[in-house]
Amino acid sequence: MKQESKIENQKIVRPIKVESVELEKIIAKPNDKFPEPLQGEFAFVGRSNVGKSSLLNAILGKKVAFVSKNPGKTRTINYYLVNHKFYLVDLPGYGYARTSKKDREEWRKVIERYFSERTWNMKVLFALVDSRHELMESDAQLFEWLDILGIEPIVALTKIDKLSNTELKRQIDYFEDVLSAYKIKRIIPCSSLKKEGIDRIWNVISEELSKE
Ligand code: GDP
User: Fold this and answer.
1) Ligand 1 closest atom vs CA 192
2) Is any ligand 1 atom within 6 A of the Cβ of residue 131?
3) Total structural domains in the chain?
């Protein structure tokens, strides 16, 4: 039996206007404190170079996150405060081919701290996956970890503008199938370049914020 599709069309309910965005807090050291919880936070995680900074910038309508040509080694958690009410949280990227074992362990420590100390304030975790490739081992490891932690992410398939319609359809079928092994809430195909999927992400954010 085919599972229920995870990419159903959502209706756009309540658009949120971005009135202000500030880089409120950078968590760099193990003792750095998380900011005030406010109305909650929406976190973004993915392999480095998956297009996370570009997606955050597209969502916020501003260049706030740093888009790099060379996948960096940033190991910080960046809190972007939106409208003085809630945060978009940029978690460090993983899985970059040239990182050392030490880097990977550091990444794990930072994320582990986030998951153990802060998910109570997290409304949704957006896990970004490159739409063009097969699911990587490091992505699969993250999804397994999230399953264990009981976190059900929304998967944002990035860079769909690089695919033809036929390829996109094939990749969506592929991801629906391969991701059915994990608990995920939904799949949202995105392009920061063409601004696709951004309204759906906003839809999720406004839906969650209106639950209170
Ligand atoms: P991050 O390392 O996950 O933050 O990824 P970046 O946002 O820095 O993007 C990595 C590379 O992918 C950059 O060269 C971006 O210009 C490119 N990129 C990101 N998003 C898109 C997209 O939606 N479409 C296309 N065509 N390229 C993208």
Assistant:
1) 23
2) no
3) 1
Give the 3-state secondary structure of residue 9.
coil
- State how far the Cα of 22 lies from the Cα of 186, in Å rounded to an integer: 28
Question: Is 4 within a domain?
Answer: no
Domain that holds residue 129: 21-210
Q: How far is the CA of 136 from the centre of ligand 1 (A)?
A: 17
Residue 121 is given by DSSP the state G
Cβ 161 vs Cβ 133: under 8 Å: no
Q: Are the C-beta atoms of residues 88 and 42 closer than 8 Å to each other?
A: yes
Sign of CA dihedral 82, 78, 156, 120: negative
User: Residue 36 sits in a domain of what CATH number?
Assistant: 3.40.50.300
The alpha carbon of 48 and the centre of ligand 1 are apart by a number of angstroms equal to 9
Task: Look at residue 6 and tell me if it is in a domain.
Answer: no
Question: What atom in ligand 1 is closest to the CA of residue 158?
Answer: 23
Q: Is residue 108 part of a domain?
A: yes
pLDDT one-digit tens code per residue, 37-67: 999 999 999 999 999 999 999 999 988 877 7
C-alpha Rg value of the chain to the nearest Å? 16
- pLDDT tens-digit series, residues 141-197: 999 999 999 999 999 999 999 999 999 999 999 999 999 999 999 999 999 999 999
Q: Which of 211, 186, 212 is nearest to 201 (CA)?
A: 186
Please report whether residue 78 resides in a domain: yes
